[in-house]
Amino acid sequence: MQNKYFDGYLEHLVSFSQKAKEKNENDKFSYYQKMFSFLKAANSDVQAVYEECITEALKEEDFAKLQSAFLHSARSKMLPAGASGYDHCDRLWSLLDLLACDDFENVYRVFPEGLPVSNNGYPMYIHGTNILLCLLYNSENKTVYPADKIVEKAEKFAASKKPLWERSVILCLLGILQGDAAKISDGLQQVCAGFAKVDAAKYMKMQCQNAYGLLVLSKHFLSEEKFMQIKYPECKNFSKNYISWFLEQNVLPEELCIAYAPPVEELNEIFRKEIAITRIHQPYLNSDNSFLSARDKKAYYMDTDKMLKEFLQ
Predict the structure, then answer these.
(1) 311 pLDDT higher than 70
(2) Given pLDDT bands bounded at 50, 70 and 90, which one contains residue 6?
(3) Residue 161 has what DSSP assignment?
(4) Cα 215 to Cα 38, 62, 154, 157, 178, distances in angstroms
(5) How far separated are the first and last CA of the chain, in Å rounded?
(6) How would you class 140 by CB atoms within 10 Å of its CB: exposed for 0-12, middle for 13-18, buried for 19 or more?
(7) Residue 149 Cα distances to 152, 153, 168, 183, angstroms
(8) DSSP notation for 249-307
């Protein structure tokens, strides 16, 4: 599903790939580490491809085309490379975007069973991740995560003076956990309004992809009766018709808005592989560095090297 901006993007990508191969001859791991970092960065070339695709899809109400742009963008961000200095909460935003266009079961790869409570990262990501962990793994018969403490902290964050989009995402997640359709409705409206003010690329702000992801979560965890009570946002960056189309799909399309040509055609297979399972580690646990606090030594971080090795197997 190429457009007029694709040739420029492909030329840039091929040039980067050739240089990466020259510097990392016979080192598959290092090559893909650099390639995935490049693909995740969403430079101006690929942003133009996304913008054109999203514009055309909305004009034509071609929701498969819109989903293909969402899917390529979300899967790019999920490639295992780079290090943010955060724990598993680093994948929250990307997961919400992914749920707007891909299979729900990916949530269990992004937040697999056994992860600890998140406490190393950006506050909004931490609160959102911990609420999601409660949704995924707590039940009437089993308490894995301390929901009361998690909810209390998240509610304080939602009532704070933090940016509207951040507070509203947490409000929605709390609404899902509590089965409160009115709270979700209010939160979604504010999520879309707040996202318009977020410092993000133009193609991302054209549609509030994370709002769709929050609705997919709501559909999964709420009863049908409760879900039907949710009011969809009235915002330019939200298409009621798209989310209705998406939720009606029994089998999701897998076409991406970019089809890679030689000599980088292997990326077509890369983008269709299963999402990398999140792995975390404690690299400083036994460190004797006196500049690290006890908290720093115990902190978890994303183990993207292990994730990449598993992904390439």
Answers:
(1) yes
(2) confident
(3) S
(4) 30, 20, 19, 21, 15
(5) 29
(6) exposed
(7) 5, 6, 19, 19
(8) -SS-----S----TTSTHHHHHTTSPPPPP-EE-TTTT---TTS-HHHHH--EE-HHHH
Say yes or no to pLDDT of 1 above 70: no
pTM, entire model: 0.96
| Structure confidence at residue 28 (pLDDT) | 94
Residues 6+ away with beta carbon under 8 Å from 7: none
Q: What is the rounded distance in angstroms from the CA atom of residue 166 to the CA atom of residue 157?
A: 9
Instruction: Report the distance separating Cα 230 and Cα 186, nearest Å.
Output: 9
Q: Whose structure tokens read 């409000």?
A: 171
Distances (CA, A) of 114 to 88, 111, 176, 288: 12, 9, 22, 28
Compute the radius of gyration of the chain from its Cα atoms.
20
CA angle 168, 206, 41 (to 5 degrees): 90
According to DSSP, the residues that pair with 281 across neighbouring strands are 301
Q: Which two tokens stand for residue 180?
A: 């409160």
CA distances from 12 to 2, 8, 141, 154 (A): 15, 6, 54, 43
Going by C-alpha positions, the residue among 45, 99, 48, 58 that lies closest to residue 212 is: 99
| Collapsed DSSP state (helix, strand, coil) of residue 72 | helix
User: Quick one: average pLDDT of 48-60?
Assistant: 96
Contact 148, 154 (CB under 8 A): no
Task: Give me the pLDDT at residue 7, please.
Answer: 85
- Helices marked H in the chain — which ranges? 6-23, 28-41, 44-60, 63-77, 92-99, 107-110, 123-137, 147-158, 164-178, 181-195, 202-206, 209-221, 224-228, 240-248, 266-270, 294-298, 304-312
| DSSP β-bridge partners for residue 98 | none
Query: With contact defined as beta carbons under 8 Å apart, do 21 and 61 qualify?
Result: no
